[in-house]
């Protein structure tokens, strides 16, 4: 993100990218909201979530896949905040080996939160 780009500009762009990705992957015209849960509301499985992360990485030239914080993503707002933090970070992100187990944790964590609500 450049110095002249505001958070509002970024948020609009982020939502546009997410909306485009969602429409193409789910063939739906559903409006994406920041409070939407990625696994439950948007119905992204672990593969779709990984594809979304890679799409965002390519769009903004950041590293998300493999970062320790990626397993904490539950909502669109969580993803947005992680992306914003990646711009502010001066240090390279702490990376983890991406395994099927790690991607499964993304879905398990979301399922646990849904059960507790």
Features:
Non-ribosomal Peptide Synthetase Peptidyl Carrier Protein, Chain A, 117 residues, globular, 56% helix, single chain, mainly alpha, Acyl carrier protein, ACP-like_sf
**Main sheet properties:** none
Please work out how many helical segments DSSP would assign.
4
CA-to-CA gap between the ends?
A: 35 Å
Structural class, by secondary structure, is mainly alpha
Q: What is the helix fraction of residues, given as a range?
A: 55-70%
Q: How many distinct domains?
A: 1
Briefly note the CATH topology name.
Non-ribosomal Peptide Synthetase Peptidyl Carrier Protein, Chain A
CATH homologous group name = ACP-like
Q: Which class in CATH terms?
A: Mainly Alpha
Share of β-strand residues: under 5%
The dominant shape is: globular
CATH architecture descriptor = Orthogonal Bundle
Low-confidence stretches: 90-103, 105-117
Protein name: Acyl carrier protein
InterPro entries: ACP-like_sf
Task: Describe the structure in brief.
Helices cover 56% and strands 0% of the residues. It is mainly alpha-helical and 117 residues long.
Task: Please provide a written account of the structure.
The chain is globular, with a radius of gyration of 14 Å. The longest helix is centred in the N-terminal third of the chain and has 20 residues, at 7-26. It has helices spanning 7-26, 46-60, 76-88, 100-116. It has 117 residues and is mainly α.
């Amino acid at each position: 993100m450049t110095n002249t780009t505001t958070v509002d500009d970024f948020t609009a762009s982020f939502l546009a990218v997410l909306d485009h990705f969602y429409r193409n992957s789910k063939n739906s015209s559903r409006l994406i909201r920041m409070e939407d849960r990625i696994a439950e509301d948007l119905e992204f499985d672990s593969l779709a979530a990984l594809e979304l992360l890679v799409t965002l990485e390519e769009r903004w030239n950041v590293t998300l896949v493999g970062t320790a914080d990626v397993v904490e993503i539950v909502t669109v707002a969580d993803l947005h905040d992680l992306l914003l933090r990646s711009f502010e970070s001066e240090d390279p992100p702490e990376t983890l080996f991406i395994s099927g187990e790690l991607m499964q944790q993304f879905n398990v964590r979301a399922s646990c939160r849904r059960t507790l609500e």
